[in-house]
Amino acid sequence: MNGKELVRITDVTKVFKKTGFFRGSSSVLALDNISLSVKKGEILGIIGESGSGKTTLAKLILGLLKPTSGSISFADVRNHEHESRKPAVQVIFQDPYDSLSHMMTIGEIVAEPCFIKYGRSYVPEKVRQALESVGLIPVDEYLHKYPHTLSGGQRQRVAIARAIVTQPDMIIADEPISMLDCSIGVDILNLILEMNEKSGITFLFITHDIAAATYICNNIAVMKAGKIVEYGPKKQIISQCSHEYTDSLLASARGEVIKNY
Ligand SMILES: Nc1ncnc2c1ncn2[C@@H]1O[C@H](COP(=O)(O)OP(=O)(O)O)[C@@H](O)[C@H]1O
Ligand SMILES: [Mg+2]
After folding, report:
1. In angstroms, what is the span from residue 35 Cα to ligand 1's centroid?
2. What protein residues have CB closer than 5 angstroms to ion ligand 2?
3. Is the CB of residue 148 less than 8 Å from the CB of residue 67?
4. Is the dihedral of CA 131, 137, 140, 144 positive or negative?
5. Closest ligand to Cα 224
6. Within 6 Å (CB) of ligand 1, which residues are found?
7. CATH numbers and ranges of domains, the chain
8. Ligand that comes closest to the CA of residue 65
9. Tens digit of pLDDT for each residue in 2-28?
């Protein structure tokens, strides 16, 4: 594995087998022989229309699904004590209404992932730091609230606080702004940029919105029907896209690029 790589995906194929009582069995080729690497410290954009395999790729990297064939490997990272370990990966989902427990307070939600890592006595301070860094201030105003009392943008900030509280090496953000109003979405994109620049967190940013990807990503991979049809630095993808599908994604977004960003 190259020194700058954090994750390497090699020849990965994922087939979902469906068996129905009336229709017999069928299979879906969700990922078709994909190879890709995620470099340390980058924001890598995965762009593609609905059903192109983006979430399946995210689930494979998270270990929630196993590839039908091919492999996913992680470079070791070093902690403060200079011990090598597998990189820690967190996730932010599309729907901030669904992804946060309605029964827990904001403080409890953000505290949950860090009990094991930090031990009880450190948790309140870590939770405060995380909420502050996503802009939910003054923190005391939010700690005891429940998610349903917050706006969509504030909930997505809570989801980001929960993802960063354990200081992961990488965050997979699966369509994190697609359910938010445009200006709120831009705030979340800026927050992702800030996390990347200040904390050096590597991001896999999944979207169907090429405008959002060109705003924050370093490199972009374009997916269509389970394949990566284009990959490169964002400037190259925008200026000299060689695939007609990328061109059509760009054409449909061009108005929005100018309008929104
Ligand atoms: N658990 C599953 N069982 C069967 N088919 C699935 C499953 N998850 C995804 N698929 C299929 O795999 C393809 C890719 O889906 P997905 O990765 O969710 O795409 P995207 O995130 O780009 O919208 C789609 O055809 C989808 O219907
Ligand atoms: Mg998806």
Report:
1. 18
2. 54-55
3. no
4. negative
5. 1
6. 16, 18, 28, 30, 48, 50-56
7. 1-88+171-176+203-261 (3.40.50.300)
8. 1
9. 668 999 999 999 999 987 777 678 899
